[in-house]
Structure formats: structure tokens, C-alpha cells
Amino acid sequence: MSGTVRWGVLATGGIAATFTADLLAMKDPGAEVVAVASRTEASAKAFADRFGIGRAYGSWAELFADDDIDVVYVATPHSAHREAAGLALEAGKHVLCEKAFTLNAREARELVALAGRRGLFLMEAMWTYCNPLIRRMTELVRDGAIGEIRTVQADFGFLGTFGAEHRLRDPALGGGALLDLGVYPVSFAQLLLGEPDRVQADALLSPEGVDLNTGMLLGWESGATALLSCSIVGDLPTTASVTGTAGRIDFPQGFFHPESFILHRPGREPEEIITGPGPQGLSGMQYEAAEVMRAVRAGETESPLVPLEGSLAVMRTLDAVRDRIGVRYPADDLA
After folding, report:
1. Cβ-contact 146, 248 below 8 angstroms
2. 99 classed as catalytic
């Protein structure tokens, strides 16, 4: 496939709006947002009017039946990822699915298998992995700039006041800090070290049984460890650090979409590494959109930047964390 990549956006929440704004602001003449769908036509129409999208559908089925769509961007709550992405794949659409990829590893395996059978592109929307600075960091680590990794530290949290009716408190919707926020520190650590050999965790749970504040300690046979945390009841720094035998890399607040990091090495001045000037006002999601379009145009079924096995490994770790802290979702019992 070459030329124009035609997108369909599924859901109309905040993250869908941010992604769509970035996609349109890329000014890629081969990127076109054809349609948006929501469970209500009114919501879809308002979103379409906001972004100048030609078609607004009040059902998922209409979006999947649109022959003019090449790729569906799934931005529903976690609990609907498996169903929505699966239906899109069954309809012959390539899929970019928001993170956390699914509610659990079983659902993720099902999606990967389905995409394989259909010969279609599938990618988790882990935009962090596509960020130029994260890619530069992995190059430095791979080239031995900080030696052998010994520790990774990362956290993501904010102080929120969510009532019992909010999706972040609802187990059926994959509520809690882990899938919304904890997926970032876990993905960051596993980008560098792969799937851990040991998982320990503890958490503060809500009356509904979802995690409000979670700490994780991951371990590898190499001796490396990762200390990670996430919270929806505490304003964490949202920073990250990677320490090796020959140096350290520090990311400031917002490590998951960084604009700079500091490389520390013994006997040298700290080196600040920054991105070059980019389009003003973009959040960083344009990098994952560009990677999807590159791969689809090249006829690839997965991205080397966000490989499916990596997404499966992260889901296995998130499952292990939930097992340790005692969080279960209704979908876990459907296996």
C-alpha cells in the first residue's frame, strides 16, 4: 500500500481528541481522517464538527463497514479494547489500539492471533516507544553509554477525586491506577530490560477493588531491578531514571513524552539531550501515527518500534501485578 492512509477514529474522549489533533497537525498529505464513531450520533457529530471530519457514525458497526477506512484508531475504555479492535480486524481494518492494550494478557493474545490470521497490521498505542528521545535513549543504552543496567526507576501519578461511579473506580471498566498510568513505568522498564523474571507488588485498593496506589519491584536474572509506582491519589513526580555500571540517564517530569533527558557519566559534565524543533502545539502522538502509516504503507503487520510480543509481555507483567495485589476484573473470569 502507498499514498493516502485513511483513518477512522473510534470514541470521542480526550485521548481521541489529542490523537486526532496531532494527526491532522502533521500536515502529512497522505493522512486523512475519514470518519469518527461513538455510541451516540450526537457525540460523533460534535467530534466531527470540531475536527472537520466528513462522516460521523452513531455506532461502531457503521465505522467498521465503511470501505473508505484503512486504519481504525481504538480509543475506547480498556474494557472495550478487545471487542472493538477485534471487530475492526474482522472487518479487514488495520488497528492502532490504545494502551493498556487490553484488560489482560489472554485478551491481548486473542487480538494478536486474530491480526495474524487476517494478515493485518496491529499496534498498541504506546506512543512513548515512538518518541525520538526515547529512541535515542535506547540507542545510547544499546551502545554501552551507561554500561550494564542495574536499576530503573519510574513513576506516574496524580491526585484525583473520583467518585465511586467514575470509570477509574469501576472494575468492569478496568479501573485503577495500573492500566491507566502504571502501564507507562512498566513499559519503560521492559523496553530496556525485557520481561522480568520476578514480580513483587503492593497496593492501596478502593472499596470497589481497584488499585488507587501501587508500588512494583521487578527483578531480572541479570541482577537488574526496577522500582515503579503509579497512583490516582498522589501527585507523583512522573520522572524516570536508568542507572548503569558506567553512568545514568535522568528524565524530568513527563518522562513518557519527553523533550529532554540528562546523560551523566563519571568524569564528564552532565549532557542534556533534547529534541529538535518540531511542530508547535503537538502532544507527541504524531510519532506513533507516523509509525503506523509508515508500516501500513510498507505492508508490514507490526511495528519494530512497538512489537506485539513486547505488548504481550507488558500485559503478562500487569496481570502478575494484579495477581499480587488482589485486583480482578470481571473479564478475567471469562477464560
Report:
1. yes
2. yes
